[in-house]
Amino acid sequence: MRLVRRRLASALLGACGLVVLLASTVPAAQAQSGGLMPDALNCDGPIEYAVWRRWNQGGLAFVREELIAQRLAAGDTYALYHFEIYFHNLLAMAQRCQRIDRLYQLAELVSSTYAKLEPAPGNRPGRAWICRGGPECSHNIRLRNTEVMLSSTQFLAFATSLANSLSRARPEAPGDFVEQTARIAREHLVRWSTPAAQGALRKQIAARPEDVKNGSSELFLTDKELWQISIYADLAGMLAVRPGLALDQDDAGFATMKAHLDLLLGLVAARITVQVPPGANGKAGKSAMVADLDAGFWRLYDDNRYAGYTGRDKPVVCKRDPARPDVFVAQTQIPAERFAPVANLGWDISHARRLVHFFEAIERNRAEMVRVYGISPSSLPSHDSMVAFARQLRLHVWNQDWNRPLFTNYFSGANGWYRVNYDNGTGNCSEGYPPYGQAESFPTGGYATWPGLHALGVRLYELTQSASVDDRDFVAAYFPSFMGRYGPSKRMIAELMFWPTLVRRGGSR
Q: Record's superkingdom (predicted)?
């Protein structure tokens, strides 16, 4: 353990030298106005170079040693969740820039997690990652010794995206990473497509926001459904290119999977709310379409009970327990009952980042999904829907301030407090996120890759690199990970989440 920490500390110290690296490489490619020149943002440019240098000096060791060798080896399957959320944007950049060797490097890391698969609990079919350690599973009896589906779906979406890219890279022998991943993906999808799961999806599809009467999440569209569709999409990509993957597409299990996918797509179609507000001339047009996800379903959810409160005073304060000095307890200062639920509330902007890689999976596998699963092209979310989500973010989530860009906590544009006194089963006290408290989700979430949002990402990059005291104070207040407030490891991860989203192939997204 000491050796691992020493190596990681050494890697992080080296990674901090990237501030010097960027000072010596990026400014040379800047315009006189101080903005980044377009060539600096292309594949093979200094931003991509800085990403891989930081990965080599810290990110790779973090995944290999902390996430896999320490946390996953101890049974903490939330390490898989963090693997995806921290490094999916890096994978997407490697795919855009066609860095095949980097894809194989990531595949080596992913394949090492397969050794932790074990028979699924409860006599269910296939193998699973079972959570036996870490704070969530150690303290939450509901999760202990179970498959945490969120972690599994999220990580498998990363793994199948990677395997799909490699299926097109070069011929491989049987039993390679692509075949392994395809088999593991199918095992999980068969287990998740039971009659009970399909029945729950039918109930969700038929539901309306007014059917939600309490804080239950039973009727919600969640990130798990988006990730499952992404897995189906990239599995179709692999099967279309390599039909010799020995996955029988004519058996009953595959038929069940196809029925499951139909229902998942039906749920997404039912929960994307598209609006066409009037334009400047009073006429509506496709160019004005905006979109939200699960609008109205989340208004009573416990995480959002302060969504209608936009004041700066903390509703809940965490204070040290006099009887237990190492324990903090929540003290309510402002009761939630003072605020009415926000009627049209859907996803917060941190969770909505799943849309970025969801739409990427759909776009790169659209034809393959139709061919492999026999579905109608019209059942797939359209490119126009993705553009409408991007426009919603630009018009209603961004504060419209170019110099000091901020982003509301909710994708609807609501900006009340989020997750006040959030209980994740660990017993930790959480005061919650104030208005604009989730602004970091824009740079780290991959949104800069969406149409019309890249320039905002570049502006935030410039602010995080600025030597101006005012700029640094602004970043410290709203984007603290980029100032190292939580330590060099957190800053390294934040930058490895953000910088790849700025890199373009041939000057286009």
A: Bacteria
